Structures are given as C-alpha cells and as structure tokens.
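thread: overnight batch results

M.L. [08:02]
morning all. the overnight job finished for the chain we discussed friday. pasting input first so we're all looking at the same thing
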Amino acid sequence: MCGIVGYLGPKEKKNILLDGLQELEYRGYDSAGIAVISQGKLQHFKAVGKLENLREKARDFRSEGLGAAIGHTRWATHGKPTELNAHPHVGAFSYVVHNGIIENYQELKKELEAQGVRFLSQTDTETIVHLFEAFINKGMEPFEAFRQTIARLEGAYAILLISEAAPETIFFAKNGSPLLIAFDGDEVYFASSDTAVIGKAKEAYYLEDGEYGFASAGEVRLFDRDGPKAFSTQPLPSDKAMAQKDGYRFFMEKEIYEQSSVIGDTMLGRVLDETIEFEELPARFFEGISRIKICACGTSYHAGLTGSYLLERLAKVPCDVEIASEFRYKEPLLSTDTLFITISQSGETADTLEALKMAKRAGLKSLTICNVDNSSIVRESDAAILTRAGIEKGVASTKAFATQVMVLWMLSLYLSQRDDKLDRDRRRRELDAMRRTPKALVVEEKLHERIHRLSKRYLHGHGFFFIGRDIFFPLALEGALKLKEISYLHAEGYPAGEMKHGPIALADAELFTIALMPRSLLYDKIKSNVEELSARDATILAISPEPFELADDFIGTQHSEHSMLEFFEMMVVTQLLALEISIRLGNDVDMPRNLAKSVTVE
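M.L. [08:03]
and the structure it wrote out:
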C-alpha cells in the first residue's frame, strides 16, 4: 500500500526522496510528503494527489551537507487524504513516517492528550512522534526514547523517525510491514520496497519482524528483543520491473499471494475482541433503513452476491443485488428505507457511478465499498468503507474481490449488533473465523505445485462449469470469470442445483466441471449434483476437504469448520487454477486482451 523512503548521507536529499517515491507509485497513494534535516533544522513539504504536486511545492528547496531525510506516499486508512493527514507527521522537533496500522492508537492518543499534547491529524501514525517526544521530555536519550516508543505500539508498522534531538540519525523499526536498509559506501538508504533504491545502492538488508535500530554517520545498529544483532547484506536486484513483482512471474500471481496480508489490513481496527467497529460510519447512519440494495459490475457484483447471503443470514436484513448496467435502464422502484450500497475496486466504474446518482436522486442513503479514497464513487456516496487492498496492477481482480467480501462479512456482523440479531456464541464464532481468515488465504507451496501439475490437463475441451451452492455459487461465478478473463477459454459459473434444469445436456468427457464442495455448507446436496454430472461422463475436478471418489481430479482443502474459511480457501484455488492454465497457454496474465482495469465508459 503506502511507500516509504529514507536517506542518510551528504547528497541532495530532496531528489533522492522524490525519485524513490516515484518508483513506489505502483503501490497506490493519495498524498505524499518529505521531511529533511538540513544543517540541524527540520523542514517538510506535503501535498495531496500526485507526486507532481509535491515536486512543485518543494521546487526551490535545497539541502546541504550530511543529514537525514524521510519520505512517504500515503494510502488513507485513518483520516481522509488531506495535507494534515499526509506523512511525515510532526511533533515539536521530530518527524515520522509509518506504514501499517497502530491498533492501540486511540488509547495512546487519549493518554498523550491528557498530558497536553495537541494532535493535528486524524491518523494513528501521529501518536508515534508524540510518544517519542514525550519520552525525550522525560530526559531519555533519543534511542532509548525510540525503543520505549516501539514497546508501546500494537499492530503492524514500518517506521522511520528523524529528530532535531539527533539530527544526523534515522531511527527505524519493522513489524508486519516491509522495510529494508540499503547501502552505498557510507550512504544509507531505507525503503518499503527495493525498487526505490535500485540504481542508488548496491546491497541491502531486509528487516525481520521485531527488529529496530538506528543509522548514524554511515553506521547501522540493529536490535531485536534479545538485544544487539549482527546482520549481513545481499546484492540488490538490477531489474526494477521484476523487483516490483517481488520475484513473482506476474503481478496477478503476486496479488494472489498478498491476499493473506491485505485481508489483515482490511480487518485492522475494525475486528475487535467482541464487536465490529467502523469509525467511518456515523452512529445513526442506519436509522430508518429496513432493506439493502447492492449495485456493482463484474467481480464486484460477485462480491455483492456473496454479501447478500451474509447480510440476510447474519443481519436479517432483506438484500437485493443489481448489475449496475442493467439497473440504470430498468426503471427501478426505489424507496427511501433502502440503503444503496455500491462496490467498486477503482471507484470510477461508469455504470456503477451512474446507478449511484440515480439512487441519490431518488433520495436513498448511500454507502460505497471501494479501494480508492477520493475516487468519484467515494465522493458521491454518503459514506465509504475502504477495502485497503492496495493498488492492484493485474487486470483480473483478486485481492480486491477478497477484501470486498471481507468488508461485506464485517458489515453483516456490524449490522447484526444493532438489534442483537445474533446470540453471543454465534457472534464469537464469526469473529473467530474472521481472525483466522488470513491463514486460510496463505498459498502453500505444495498446493500451488499441485495446481500447476493439474493445469496441463485442462487446456482443451469445449468449456468449464464452475458449480457451487449458497455463497459458493457467486464464488463459482467469480472462478469462471477469472478463467475467462485471462485464459480466453469458455467458462460458466452455475448454481449446482440448477444443472439438471438444462445445462446438464452439455455434459460429456470434454466438459470440465470445477465443483466447489464445502464440508460446512450443503455438502450432501452439492455431492448429489456432482454425481449427476459424473454419471453423464463429465470430467470432475472437486475442490473440497472431503475426498470424493467420483472425482477425476481432487484438490484437498484444510478448513471445514466455517463456510467463510472454506470460501476464501477455495477462492485461492480457483484463482491459481486460472493463473496456471493461462500461463501454460502463453497468455499475458496481467494484461489480458480487450480488457481494462478501470471501466470508465458505458
């Protein structure tokens, strides 16, 4: 998501920071800023929007001599994209940049405000710099103050901090968010990805979780919980494009693997011990709402279909789902007791935006689930929940879909809390399953290798049926769409119980059936449906935790105690299957023909 750069050395610092941030633009951002200590004094510049705005603000600035500098591109999580909320965040004599989310920031903020600290931003990050300065004001040496600060933080972070209290030093820490240190002689660089320092530094050390330390006068001191720690560097890669892919063959592959970590970002600060909280939603936002209508296109439509099952099952709220391009022209009947939810990865989807405007003209309250703050749909909506998936470069959406579904699941539980629609044990089971979702999204090497081997058997034939029931029906639709988008093979998603009402006429050995067979939900029903296809000689690939004797191929899944854990695990399998088939066919997985990432025309 956000990007970090840092530099300690004698060169002109502004350009090093701006050039490094430019290389991290692919991660996505809505504001940017830099801070530099030059001749012992701190100066900073921030701007909303693209880096060109920041370059213009800092156009006349020059820094001379040895000094420290940090920069950041921000993707909003706490607080809107404004200059005050942009990084670096300022204290009385220090600046900090931070990726991740500080889960206990509200507790820390109250504590600091009680000591007279005045906060300027709405962010969690600002607590870090004020906490550091509070320890300095108690008489601590700068590094001890930083160490004590890190000890108080809960959550995920990659942190760089500079201070007039130690003007030729950069303090750093890493836990759950990437950060590296790179070297060119006595010059020291920091970055959240090595693309920012390729061509500038020659070697790097990639920090592990729990490591922290400081760089000063060309020396780096590293620590972990056991004390000082030695480290060794490795050569930096030379290809920036490959570095952006972190060694994966395609961005889509990288984004499939990222789902385990970004789903954690989606939940941070929202999934609490006993409840779901959305600080983005006003306390009385749902007053007067008795039904929900979801409107979206493509993959987002499939997420909305999944959400409709969850909203009715958990929140007990009637929910309809519309394809935005159809909704616009059907002369829909709309009532003001309906909450209109739009879903979009980019926030610029033309049909969805126009559908939202129609709903607003009819007087409906609106909520959007989106990945891009300050996008057109977010600005048009009454409220927005950001998915925090980070930029998605692969045209075929993967992590955006996963995070949209997670937001809808959380929203369903959030609404169930309003009128106590679920008993306490059921709510705890749902929360527990949410917390275990990142593990269900981990791509095991053994699984990926099995799918790679299987994929060679599915390159020819006259089509694919992806079938499932309940929430696994929209997942079947999404699995078929992924395969269509990048392989150019014909695929359909279908509700398994409907196969006998016509489509089973297509069944033969050249029809590949991808059967989603969760143990936790309607297993005997889906099993019966697959047996009907097998009897007609269809080729069956079963995805299930339960071995299926009639399957021609079988991919075993691990999670079976909660349907959503099975959903997310099977989602990964369908994504990898589409990926591996498409790679074998020689296709450009990231840029499939005839498709665009953001559909901004009707």
